[in-house]
Amino acid sequence: MQPWQIVLLIVGIILLVYTAIEVYVIWSVVGFSNKLKRRLLAVSIILNERRDFLLSEIDGFRAAGVPFRDSDELVFRQVRELQLSKLKPEDVHYISQLLNDADSRFNYLATKNAWATKGEEFQTLSLVSKDLEVNYRQAVVGYNTDLLGYNYWVKIPLCHWIPWLLGFRARERIG
């Protein structure tokens, strides 16, 4: 073999290995992107369940005749108007904070009006509320874990430019 053929063979092998690595990186990025979509859907479903459950608790208090302050009514109206069908990762923190604020206001009303919380039904409802909160936290942890893998593959040195050209960008955690 001639020297130029050896150099050409080495360059060909290097390009073949680089192409194989690029294909694997793109495959990993697409896989993690699909996982993130499924995890975000799970977070959306849990937030929707929390919202519906909180609204049913509030309606139960209304039916019992518990008085609400204007600030409570404002927060509860914002919760009622939430649109959770097309949830984006950057909206999760705001929605979670709003639901937590409404839940803390509801808990304040429950402690202030102890007569409305007597009975086994309220105890069951508070356990369901805690379970929904635990499920939300687990879903967020799962999303953030998959996000670490996604961001890792998007930022691989010497290989990050093709995912970037395909529209895959690093994302922020949700909390």
What structural keywords apply?
5 helices, rod-shaped, mainly alpha, 175 residues, 78% helix, single chain
Short description:
It contains five helices and no strands.
**Secondary structure: number of strands:** 0
Proportion of beta-strand residues: under 5%
Given as residue ranges, the uncertain stretches (5+ residues, pLDDT < 50) are none
Give the helix/strand class.
Answer: mainly alpha
Q: Sketch the major β-sheet.
A: none
Q: Count the helices. How many?
A: 5
- Determine the fraction of residues in helical runs and give it as a percent range: over 70%
Q: Give the C-alpha Rg.
A: 25 Å
Written as H for each helix and E for each strand, in order along the chain, the element string is HHHHH
Amino- and carboxy-terminal Cα gap: 61 Å
| Principal-axes shape call | rod-shaped
| Overall average residue pLDDT | 89
Commentary on this structure:
Helix 1 packs parallel to helix 3, helix 1 (3-64) runs antiparallel to helix 4 (120-154) and helix 2 (70-80) packs antiparallel against helix 3 (89-112). The chain has helices spanning 3-64, 70-80, 89-112, 120-154, 161-165. With 175 residues, the protein is mainly alpha-helical. It contains five helices and no strands.
